[in-house]
Amino acid sequence: MKITRKDFLRLSGLSVLAAGAVRTFEAAKAAGQSAIRPLRGSGGAPRKQLAMAIDLRKCRQRPGCDLCMKACRDAHNVPVIADPRHEVKWIWNAPFAEVFPLEQSAYTERNYTGSPLPVLCNHCDEPACVRVCPTGATWKRSEDGIVMMDWHRCIGCKYCMVACPYEARSFNFVDPRPYIEHINSDFPTRSMGVVEKCNFCAERLAAGKQPACVEACPANAIAFGDSSDPNSPVCLALSASFSLRRKPELGTGPNVHSIV
Amino acid sequence: MFEKALAGGRRYWLWVGFLLAVSFLGLFDWVREQQIGLGVTALTRDVPWGLYIGQFVFFVGLGASALVVVLPYYLHNWKAFAKITLLGEILGMVSVFMAMLFIFVSMGRPMRLINVLWYPHPNSLIFWDINVLSGYVLLNAIVTTTILWSERQGIAPPRWTRFLVMLSLPWAVSIHTVTAFILCGLVARPYWLTPLMAPRFLASAFTSGAALLALLALLMRRLGVFDVGEEAIQKLRTIATYCLLTHVFFDLNEIFTVFYSRIPEHVAHIDYLFAGLDGNDLYAPWMQLSALFALAALAIFLIPALRNRSSLLPWACAFAFFSMLIEKGLGLMVGGFVPTAFGVTAAYAPNLSEWTVVAGIWAFGALLITVLYKIALAVRAEAES
Q1: B185 neighbors A162 (Cβ within 8 angstroms)
Q2: Where do the domains of chain A lie?
Q3: What φ, ψ does residue A258 adopt, rounded to 5°?
Q4: A147-190: per-residue pLDDT in tens?
Q5: Using the beta-carbon criterion (under 8 Å), do B341 and A167 form an inter-chain contact?
């Protein structure tokens, strides 16, 4: 059989197409596998990502408890501002129906209304706040996945607050220093006009300690650790119980889990 | 050329003095906001962007709308716009400058603005916006100054000005597109999450721009300062009509998708704006007024019996302008944030401090327009005589 140039071109075109199709199929298969891995938000190579699991069953046994929030305020010089319009919040209580609006039903309402749950920055796999920041004042730390902030570079444009689907960020509408209950001289205070949020206690982790909220909880309700390590406290806690994440459908890959 | 701005009658100096006074009032109020903190404004943790950013969006649009005179004049050789094109370019330049001031006053740490260029992050739309906005102001400043300078010398403008003018056309589209992209790429804000945002912005921008230019032209004729010619005004009316029609069509498209699909988190924002939610209906009368203004303007633009009455034209232009101003200059922001990510119907109403700063920037913009128009018209009058 004689192969003309035209045939040859046709044939090579077809083989390229076939090779491409096989690749796409394999990629789709791989994506399917990565989607059933419990903790990965975006797939890809397993990388260290700190995560948190809050066991609300333990929280519900201690109504009115706010020891985690108090420990956080004391550790990070978070001001207590009475005016809700100007509040600065790192970890705080919010009603179930507001945190998980899509999980709300007559049953969840009966069981969970009246027991608010702690919410904080989700240190997302794909943080929207980092994507929009015009100066790099907030970034995702590659070694452990913490979404960090530089309060000296922040220009106060508040774009990150607009982009965060969890409203985890606060702007210093007033000078926060007069509103700090006990100043911790080991941690910086913030100035007026910048944004701040939970930092997963990066400064305590560096000193080999657990986050302040984890340590302060008398019921050991908060499990913390590396989500790529199946034996970490957070993975063990999550593999034992059913949990929820806030708005996972947005593709941000939140890393704070609530065991309901 | 600036000496032309210093020769004016009593009426001129009173007007300039008034604008200067209001500008300084706004400046002092902004300094106070920076000293005490943005807590002085009505902005909150739930509504971190409000009147300032709304005004920013509106004025970027007004800036882009220079295109409605520049494009027909330079690309299609519409002689009717010979007298008004320069005025359109100046209006566009001043509007974008005002837009940049609105960004500046809404920042918590404006003195650190240089960080945006010092640590450039092209993944952020604000980085692009600051670049395209300052580029647009610069482009128009060079073009208008060169054209005026040439007219004064009695020579034709250098050929490169035409290149810059052509460049300014896609650039005008880009400034408003980038501004739309700031908002329409955020998963957190369903009200803004629509690919129709940039086209809607352009349609409303060209409506408000054509309407404002027609109004300014009518005002200058009335004051006996300058006459751009009846044909130019009529053509501006035609442009405003088509752009307003397009804008209303786009808005109805949004309404259909949202209310036929009835996705709760999309419905909630429009419900809040136009009807009120959880008893909070602060913006309902304003948004209804905006819709009513758009329809009234369309009626005057389209119905032959009304269209032919020249006394109604300024009304139609004013209706169109204020309809866009309400929808974009305030409603767009509030609708994006309320209800919040937690489903809370947060309250935000701009307070006196914000209105004062806004009045200051408006006055400063009006002052720039007054002075620059005076210079341009004086140079032209001199060149003609």
Answers
A1: no
A2: 1-36, 50-259
A3: -115, 120
A4: 999 999 999 999 999 999 999 999 999 999 999 999 999 999 99
A5: yes
Comparing CB atoms, the residue among A85, A153, A155 nearest residue B107 is A155
Q: Is the dihedral of CA A152, A153, A156, A158 positive or negative?
A: negative
Pairing of strands A256-259, A50-55: parallel
Rg (CA), chain A: 23
* Token pair recorded at residue A151: 């309060």
| Cβ neighbours for B146, distance < 8 A, ≥ 6 positions apart | B157, B158, B161
Burial of A187-224, coded b for 16+ CB within 10 Å and e otherwise, reads: eebbbbbbbbbbbbbbebbeeeebbbbbbbbeeebbbb
Three-class secondary structure of residue B280 per DSSP:
strand
| Nearest to B313, CA basis, from B203, B234, B208, B209 | B234
Most A-contacting residue of B40, B56, B109 (CB-CB within 10 A), to test interface: B109
Q: Between chains, do A164 and B342 touch, taking CB under 8 Å as contact?
A: no
**How would you write B297-316 as a 3-class SS string?**
HHHHHHCHHHHCCHHHHHHH
Class for the domain spanning A50-259: alpha beta
pLDDT tens, B355-376? 999 999 999 999 999 999 999 9
Query: How many angstroms separate the CA atoms of A199 and A233, rounded?
Result: 19
Its sign, for the CA torsion A67, A69, A72, A78, is negative
**Positions in chain B whose pLDDT score sits under 50:** none
**Residue A226, min C-alpha distance to chain B (Å):** 27
pLDDT for the residue numbered A42 = 44
Q: Which domains does chain B have, with CATH numbers?
A: 42-213+230-350 (1.20.1630.10)
* ipTM score: 0.94
Of A137, A165, A174, the CB nearest to B341: A165
Residues of chain A positioned with their CB less than 8 A from the CB of B38? 156, 171, 173, 193
* Residue A30 clears pLDDT 70, i.e. is over it: no
